[in-house]
Amino acid sequence: MNADDIRKVAVVGGGLMGSGIAQEFATAGYDVALQDISTAQLDSALTRMRENLTMLAEHGLVDAGFIDGIVAGITPATSLESTVSDADIVIEAATEDVEVKQGLFRSLSELCPSHTILATTTSAIHPDVFADATDCPDRVIVTHFGIPNYLIPLVEMARAEKTSDETSAVVFALLEKIGKRPIVMKRPLQGFIANRLQFAMMREALNIISQGAATPEDIDTAIQNNFGRRYGITGPLAIFDMSGLNVVLKVAGQTVPHLATSDAPFDYIREKVTDGKLGLSTGEGMYHWTSESAAALRRRLTDGLVAIEKWTRAQEGQ
Ligand SMILES: NC(=O)c1ccc[n+]([C@@H]2O[C@H](COP(=O)([O-])OP(=O)(O)OC[C@H]3O[C@@H](n4cnc5c(N)ncnc54)[C@H](O)[C@@H]3O)[C@@H](O)[C@H]2O)c1
Asked: Hey, which of 79, 95, 151, 196 would you mutate to test ligand 1's pocket, going by the most ligand atoms within 8 Å of its Cβ?
């Protein structure tokens, strides 16, 4: 099989991630089926997709005239069997729970045709956990998307021990066809690449806050106004080469011995969670939020990501 043989895409789980993935494949012209155990979730998935597409159209990233057709190209269902029985690839995006996902993979290996690729968007579960639940481990692979996936190009792919080269190559090519930037890990590591890096940085951010050396505002200001500006354009390892590795080594020698290495800094977050301070949803987390400031944050993030997407497309001559 190659990527051009894939016509029918089934997405299992219609939450934030599953609806976004269904939207991306439908926008690329695929026949998409979206399954969830909850009809309420399916209804809100369709509403969310239409809102996302309208926003993308307002920014000129999707043709407004295609929105009805894109949404009509997605068949919602609560039956897993009818959703996956003729799928060429299934992308599982159900709740991040090992038992739920293992159960789904057991069912998928029974219900799907013998050629179907079984992918999962797990954020951190090892690929072998999924492969071992099936009788087709060669066709199982992790495809970890970022949020909001329709404006974040990266998909981290991680192979199970028995994933075939063909499965990996087909999924890689398929993701490229729909405009994603896939990378395949040489071997799976817990948390893959992006989350490992983000949490390594967050550990130090919380360490700095816990030591009373800076406020959350200071940390966000430092990142946004320094390397955060560069990273969407040039990766940090290329920046190392611009700085000169001899310089990097000198600065590292002065800094790295003082960085946090335990998970103690996360006590700061643990205490907030215990106090019910979860972030936007509760009005308080790292900051205080009103419904207006929360909406403004969401809008600012979307507008910024749209601008970066347009800039990237212009650079690539698309
Ligand atoms: N949200 C993120 O930032 C993000 C980022 C990367 C990866 N992921 C991963 O994507 C997956 C989905 O995350 P989400 O944020 O969309 O979660 P979510 O809670 O928004 O959606 C999960 C959906 O799965 C459905 N579901 C639960 N059990 C099911 C079952 N047995 N069969 C079918 N559907 C079922 C739920 O009804 C719900 O609609 C998780 O594995 C998560 O780790 C999420």
From this structure: 95
